[in-house]
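Quick one, tokens below:
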């Protein structure tokens, strides 16, 4: 029997990569659900290729405009996952959650009860709503698999070991486009410089996060939550080729590393391994890259974003929502050339140091609405401070 698959965010890069793997294994998998925000043209092609009968269109205007078309095509179209669940009574075998940004949290929470296995590729959902996700995973006995290459690698390296056996986990970073550039020159750099990632093909938002290295702060927060370890168990190190994705040092003196090419196909492929009846991904051992790993310590003066880690506590809190939302706004402004590169660091720290937000360090998220309301507030405050810095 074919495994029933859902892909939330099917028109984005992770969704497209997942579908590429599924397309080569149509005898093993059946795509039951796809979702997009606005990309109707692309999702129509996906529906045709995979003969999908259920789709979610999150954008209200796009949904209304195309509802009749899909109805005539005998495609069940919904505006959210909740509406889909009301009609689709079967349980999915696998769901890929790849909706970008904090907007992906609601869909992630809603799909958990309808799937046996969930792969989450959305940093913001895990960072801001992990305690809500974890509660639902336990309630509905849904298996969770991390898809970020770093967390997938750590997951593989420690899955047969107890946490007390782990001495240190190293999260690797390429260093982004500015690794070899002197700090004094960075203030003059504009978006087109920052989006040129040296090893990964990524969207503009994540490319900027990589240039500031805030993406590695995010990944450390994610790892702390997923693997239920304190922050002092983690360290971020530079590995310029992005060939090593995880390093774990154990108390018995053994150090394990996991490496693979810079392709999200590897973690996605492995998350789909229900059985061996799936076509193998071609690849070779790249000895040249293994001979030139060049591990390095982080230059904290050049990448001051790591000072943020000192502000975080080991408990799940709403403070992470403040961090994620403010950074999102600042990256948007930088991409529009409204603020300078180092303004991202400066204003982000100003927001995090505000008394009205510090109190959220001790408040655990109770529900999705609480997270969304705080996010709206932080967004407005960040825009206000950013405008003042432009004057």
């Amino acid at each position: 029997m074919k495994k029933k698959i859902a892909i939330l965010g099917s028109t984005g890069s992770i969704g497209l990569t997942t579908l590429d793997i599924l397309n080569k294994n149509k005898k093993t998998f059946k795509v039951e659900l796809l979702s997009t925000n606005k990309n109707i043209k692309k999702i129509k092609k996906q529906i045709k290729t995979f003969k999908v009968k259920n789709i979610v269109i999150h954008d209200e205007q796009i949904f209304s405009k195309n509802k009749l078309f899909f109805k005539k095509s005998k495609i069940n179209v919904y505006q959210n996952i909740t509406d889909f669940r009301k009609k689709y009574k079967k349980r999915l075998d696998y769901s890929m959650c790849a909706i970008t940004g904090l907007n992906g949290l609601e869909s992630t929470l809603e799909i958990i009860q309808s799937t046996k296995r969930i792969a989450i590729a959305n940093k913001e959902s895990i960072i801001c709503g992990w305690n809500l996700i974890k509660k639902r995973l336990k309630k509905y006995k849904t298996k969770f698999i991390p898809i970020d290459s770093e967390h997938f690698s750590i997951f593989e390296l420690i899955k047969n070991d107890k946490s007390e056996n782990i001495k240190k986990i190293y999260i690797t970073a390429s260093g982004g486009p500015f690794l070899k550039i002197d700090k004094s020159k960075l203030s003059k750099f504009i978006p087109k410089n920052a989006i040129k990632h040296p090893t990964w093909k990524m969207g503009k938002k994540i490319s900027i996060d990589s240039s500031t290295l805030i993406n590695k702060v995010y990944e450390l927060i994610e790892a702390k939550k997923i693997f239920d370890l304190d922050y002092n168990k983690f360290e971020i190190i530079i590995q310029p080729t992005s060939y090593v994705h995880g390093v774990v040092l154990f108390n018995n003196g053994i150090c394990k590393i996991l490496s693979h090419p810079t392709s999200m196909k590897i973690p996605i492929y492995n998350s789909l391994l229900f059985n061996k009846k799936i076509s193998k991904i071609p690849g070779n051992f790249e000895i040249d890259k293994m001979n030139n790993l060049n591990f390095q310590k982080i230059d904290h003066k050049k990448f001051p974003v790591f000072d943020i880690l000192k502000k975080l506590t080991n408990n799940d809190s709403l403070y992470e929502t403040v961090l994620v939302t403010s950074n999102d706004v600042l990256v948007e402004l930088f991409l529009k050339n409204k603020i300078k590169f180092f303004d991202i660091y400066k204003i982000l720290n100003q927001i995090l140091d505000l008394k009205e937000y510090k109190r959220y360090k001790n408040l655990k998220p109770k529900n999705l609405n609480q997270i969304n309301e705080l996010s709206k507030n932080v967004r407005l405050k960040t825009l206000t401070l950013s405008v003042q810095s432009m004057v």
